[in-house]
Specification:
alpha+beta, three-stranded antiparallel sheet, transmembrane, Prepilin-type N-terminal cleavage/methylation domain-containing protein
Length: 144
């Protein structure tokens, strides 16, 4: 009698398929979780870069201008100073300025507390808050 044992039994095939399915599901899940966290990290990085740019520009305006005005229409921050206007806008981000004063800010007279919230329009839970104070050394103006 000839015994041919080169083939696989049904149990071996099913066990192999089950193990491969479990491994495939785990790899698939890890792959898509990695993509999700990468997108979130890129978004957070972009928000922080925009926050640094806004803070740097507003600090420079506060320290070099006689006066300026802040407005916050439609997820944008507008700064009017020295017959110029600068606008901070990003297609994917929303800029929210808390307690923007109605009257012009006089940097040589007061320090200005600033609270800006930057939110990702596509992922509202992904946001960054800047809580800082814009200041200028007092008495540096010869007219005082």
């Amino acid at each position: 009698m000839i015994h041919n044992e080169r083939g696989l039994t049904l149990v071996e095939v099913l066990a192999t398929l089950t193990i491969l399915s479990i491994i495939g599901a785990v790899v698939w899940n890890v792959f898509f979780q990695g993509i999700h966290y990468t997108k979130k990290a890129v978004s957070q990085n972009s928000i922080q870069q925009e926050a640094n740019i806004i803070t740097m520009r507003l600090t420079r305006i506060h320290q070099t201008s006689e006066s300026y005005e802040l407005e916050n229409p439609d997820c944008t921050i507008k700064v009017k100073y020295s017959e110029q206007e600068e606008e901070f806008h990003h297609n994917d981000l929303c800029f929210s300025l808390e307690n923007a004063p109605e009257e012009p800010i006089l940097p040589s007279k007061v320090d200005y507390p600033l609270l800006i919230t930057i939110t990702d329009k596509h992922h509202p839970k992904n946001k960054f808050v800047i809580d800082t104070t814009l200041y200028r050394l007092k008495g540096s103006n010869h007219n005082e």
